[in-house]
Amino acid sequence: MPIVTIQQGPRDVELKRELVKRVTDAFVDAYRIPAETVQVWIHEVPADSWGAAGKLTADK
User: Does the keyword Isomerase apply (predicted)?
Assistant: First the structure.
């Protein structure tokens, strides 16, 4: 059973629905497994809790 973890900033629920569908479909196509066996976990991190290039994302 594949478990896919996606770490990202907060996104709209409709975008997350589409992402979960596409990731699931990719595993179904690549591994020839039932969609029911694919789990997608979305871990959303607030902009003040991560950074890049030495700066908090919230400060950009």
Answer: yes
* Tokens 């996606």 sit on residue: 6
pLDDT in tens, 20-33: 999 999 999 999 99
Q: Which two tokens stand for residue 42?
A: 């979305």
Name the nearest CA neighbour of 5 among 41, 46, 44: 41
* Global pTM value: 0.85
Dihedral of CA 50/55/56/60: which sign? negative
Residue 55's pLDDT is what? Answer: 95
Q: Which two tokens stand for residue 46?
A: 């607030």
Burial class of 13 by CB neighbour count within 10 A (0 to 12, 13 to 18, 19+):
exposed
25 SS3 class: helix
